[in-house]
């Protein structure tokens, strides 16, 4: 089992989760985070920390696409271990549907 970040993170990018991760398996894109599925130790401490409810266990239905999505971008983006401010539009975008249209493949700064 692993945890994944889904599209609820897009345009919010809260980083409360990275502070509690004991293995530093979060990676930062321009407007979202992902979890490297091979590095995640399934501890689950990140899930309740996400204000956007974007972190889910891969055991939920239809999560395989998100495992592969997280794997792909965690191999391209820099690791993030430090909490940062959310994106300026985070409050407005939190809970919105259909945010994949806003997804950016660009890496974040990491750190």
UniProtKB/TrEMBL annotation:
Keyword set for this entry? Answer: 3Fe-4S, 4Fe-4S, Electron transport, Iron, Iron-sulfur, Metal-binding, Repeat, Transport
Q: Which GO terms describe its molecular function?
A: 3 iron, 4 sulfur cluster binding; 4 iron, 4 sulfur cluster binding; electron transfer activity; metal ion binding
Q: Give the source's domain of life in one word.
A: Bacteria
Q: Which cofactor does it need?
A: [3Fe-4S] cluster; [4Fe-4S] cluster
* Domain 4Fe-4S ferredoxin-type: start-end pairs: 1-30, 31-60
Indicate whether Metal-binding appears among the record's keywords: yes
Query: Annotated region Disordered: where?
Result: 87-111
Task: Give the PROSITE patterns listed for this entry.
Answer: 4FE4S_FER_1, 4FE4S_FER_2
One Pfam assignment: Fer4
InterPro entries found in the cross-reference section: 4Fe4S_Fe-S-bd (IPR017896), 4Fe4S_Fe_S_CS (IPR017900), 7Fe_ferredoxin (IPR000813), Fd_C (IPR022569), FdxA (IPR054829), RnfB_subfamily (IPR050294)
Q: Is Repeat found in the keyword set?
A: yes
Q: What does this protein do?
A: Ferredoxins are iron-sulfur proteins that transfer electrons in a wide variety of metabolic reactions.
Could you identify this protein by its name?
Ferredoxin
- Species of origin: Sulfitobacter delicatus
* Organism placement in taxonomy: Bacteria, Pseudomonadati, Pseudomonadota, Alphaproteobacteria, Rhodobacterales
